[in-house]
Here is the input.
Amino acid sequence: QFLYFIAFSKNSISIKKRTFIMGDVKKGEKLFKARGAQCHTIAEGGANGVGPNLYGIIGRPSGSVEGFAYSKANSESGVTWTPDVMDVYMENPKKFMPGTKMAFAGLKKKADRDNLIAYLKSMSPNFSE
Here is the structure.
């Protein structure tokens, strides 16, 4: 599977092709429990923790979970959490969104990000590609 990114600037248009490998949901769930569950819940109707509840995150606008106090950077980012955006974000959250409160260094391995995104997609029933 390939994703194509089109970037527009004042004087040019560039198209980048990225390979997006489908991840393993079970491995992603295990990774979430090891690296994400300390701060986030992911149950339908679940409470917010240090971070917001991530149920339905894929396809949702950033900063939109009711009752969670987001950073200004997050709530005003205009980001929608698609799989490709999540991939870039999860590699280095602070680089992607300067000013975020999330104290997570990121996942450097592409396979880990793919697996986690597969799990997050499986917990996002309103998302369709």
Q: What stands out?
A: The CA atoms of residues 5 and 16 lie 5 Å apart.
